Amino acid sequence: MKEKRSGPMPKIPRSSDNDYTHDMSRTRREFIARETGTQLNHLGHYSIPPETLSGNIENFAGVAQVPIGFAGPMLVNGEHAKGEFYVPMATTEGTLTASYSRGMRLTREAGGITTTVIDDAMQRAPMFAFSDAREALAFGRWVEQNFETIKQASDSTTSVGKLRDIEQYAASKLRWLRFNFTCGDAAGQNMVSKATKAGCEWIQANYPRPIEHFVLAANLDTDKKHSHLNSLHTRGKRVVAEITLPKQLMTDIMHCPPEALFKQRQYSNMGALMAGSVNNGAHFANGITAMFIACGQDVANVAESSAGFTYAEIMPNGDYYFSVTIPSLIVATYGGGTGLATQNECLSVLGCTERGSVNKFAEIVAATVLCGDLSLGSAVVADEWVSSHERLGRNR
After folding, report:
1. Per-residue pLDDT reduced to its tens digit, 352-374
2. Catalytic hit among 120, 185, 221, 298
3. Residue 172 in contact with residue 133, Cβ under 8 Å?
4. Is the pLDDT of residue 386 over 50?
5. Which of 49, 86, 214, 301 has its C-alpha lying 20 to 30 A from 325's C-alpha?
6. Do 143 and 74 belong to one domain?
7. Region labeled Disordered — which residues (predicted)?
């Protein structure tokens, strides 16, 4: 890095005519190299057409290349995802793809993973302030009485989003309205912001009494951060993946009988409880993040999407029932980064580029998470965890 100069640093070059070209990306790389003394020899190698990136990035200068591998095949018996899938995973963590593939082999030989999307909602939660709590309560009742008209105002901003309901939360003289929308194949954060704003403008124009203050968002959403509210009430898709594994199959493939894995599950539940964790599973975030990067999802949504619950039982015949529940899985198959070249290819591998495929993608993600947690949990019990990382994860 070059020594610090006196005076202000120069601005990054931009073009007011067309900022998304190979020439402008090269100009910016040369500028950064000149200003920092670092040669950008790899950032400029990419196949994505720059003209497709408007709305996805500003000051485009190149790409970060993350290795992608495929795990699988994984057999899913979902309502939307049916059949076998090769799962794209973008990661720099050795052993990850191999571990997920091992879990996929086990579940495939057991007959496949059952997946169910049990809820769907994306939120924006505006806050209204009043002179006292009684005024806030009266406002809440008025909102309930006028829901249908508020819904009409909100839904008028989008052909896809639909206002499902409005939850209400109160503290002091403040009242939060949690607008819940369905958003089609989009993740929907921007969509619901616009729609909620329209609904709130109607409220402000028509509520007959004074409103002291209004703000479109005041952290109850909770956008790109975990909350127990989202775990209870859903943000994005609420998905369950579950399977019953034959005892002998677990022993043969995972070197781990159900009794040992169930015992470890109880220890892990206690450890998660003591730590105040938002997840009692092994590593939901690994599979979710790897798929999000590969498939053009908003990776910051891993903050919410990686929260979750695992549940297990030993069946009367000795088989092992195991499930994962992801209460706030925020995914899309339309919009955002899903249309970019490499990301769209990965979605296409999964058959998730057609209209109406977002629940299919959600089920595939949940099934992948289940495979990863089974594999890691078994590796810990069978004392294969450290040795596998030493064998596959060393690049020193």
Report:
1. 999 999 999 999 999 999 999 99
2. 298
3. yes
4. no
5. 86
6. no
7. 1-23
80 part of the active site: no
Q: What's the whole-number mean pLDDT along residues 107-130?
A: 97
- What's residue 56's pLDDT? 95
Note whether 136 and 260 are same-domain residues. Answer: no
What does the block give as tokens for 190?
């921007």
Name the least confident of 3-7, 23-27, 354-358, 360-364: 3-7
**Count of structural domains, the chain:** 3
304, pLDDT greater than 50: yes
As a whole-number percent, the residues of the chain with pLDDT over 90 amount to 88
Looking at the domain assignment, is residue 2 inside a domain?
Answer: no
- How do beta strands 320-329 and 162-171 pair? unpaired
Evaluate if pTM is beyond 0.90. Answer: yes
Structural domain for 175, as ranges: 126-215
Both tokens assigned to 280 = 């009692």
Query: Active site includes 298?
Result: yes
User: Is residue 184 domain-shared with residue 306, that is, in the same domain?
Assistant: no
Cα separation, 68 vs 349, in Å, equals: 13
Task: Tell me the one-letter amino acid at 333.
Answer: T
136 and 248 inside one domain? no
Tell me the per-residue pLDDT of 236-274, one tens digit each, with 9 for 90 and over. 999 999 999 999 999 898 888 999 999 999 999 999 999
**Does residue 137 belong to any structural domain of this protein?**
yes
Q: Give yes or no for residue 6 having a pLDDT over 80.
A: no
- Both 141 and 109 in a single domain? no
pLDDT reading at 149 higher than 90: yes
Let me know if 93 is a catalytic residue: yes
